[in-house]
Amino acid sequence: MTDITALKPERLLSVREVFGIDSDLMAPAFAERDDHVPEIDAVYRFNPDVTLAILAGFMRDRRVMVQGLHGTGKSTHIEQVAARLNWPCVRLNLDGHISRLDLVGKDAVVLREGQQVTEFQEGIVPWALQRPVALIFDEYDAGRPDVMFVIQRILEQGGKFTLMDQNRVLHPHPSFRLFATANTVGLGNLNGLYHGAQRLNHAQIDRWNIVASLDYLPAEEEIAIVQARVPSTRNEAGHDMVRAMVAVADLTRKGFAAGDLSTLMSPRTVITWAENVEIFRDPALAFRLSFVNKCDEAERPLVAEYFQRCFDLELKESHQLSGS
Q1: GO molecular function, one example (predicted)?
Q2: Is the dihedral of CA 95, 127, 69, 60 positive or negative?
Q3: What is the pLDDT of residues 193-238, one digit of tens each?
Q4: Three-state DSSP class for 97?
């Protein structure tokens, strides 16, 4: 297994050739792949502005936050850039279960030569900080206050990290990079869409050098992705069906943004729906099993209306919509 600490960027890749973006930039890349490098998604579609923002993070050690509604592919965007640069990458979801000890580390009892001894086990932050790793904090605006203050210590460029319990000062690896994804850019749950999102103080947000905003793909691009994933839709009838599916998904996203729905269809859900059509040979049944049954029962008539508008076909009666 490759020693990850020994890896370093050894070549430059053309952003134009690798990402299809009209730019003369050259991005640093590793020659070898490590177990922590994400797998390349060959049909992934890159948003040019967001991709350039992420590349700036890798090239110039900028702290980059990607903001947008869930399902827009914020984390996968960072991962797919890292995959093409062969850059090791680790994601950490800052849900309510992540504590300061998870980030920093803690003492643990281990067996050494048959004897129980207490030793310090590093958390994810000191582990990543000392390696050529892109560390991604998912759901950044959902982190607990004690967790956020730990992260604040490494947001400065070249910021050192002190392990108080160990009396050690850690210096970041030259190829350590830091990214985050968020739904609200630290504004909290103002519109009621993201329960659990916290307001972040200005000092936190100000330490992120670049904030990129990511929206859903244009309809034609989303259709192309679904067809690339589900080969059986690569014909005229399949294209028309996928177009209607993407239209339904767009309505759920608008309904979610307006507060009419508590959930929405991500591109991943649309792909799942198309895959299930292959199994059940029925777009309506596949839709119920892929999405409708995940919705609040009171919202299902509205979802059924979206389906009817796009497919010119009624879903089954409400008792069947509820899965009974």
Answers
A1: cobaltochelatase activity
A2: positive
A3: 444 445 566 667 888 999 999 999 999 999 999 999 999 999 999 9
A4: coil
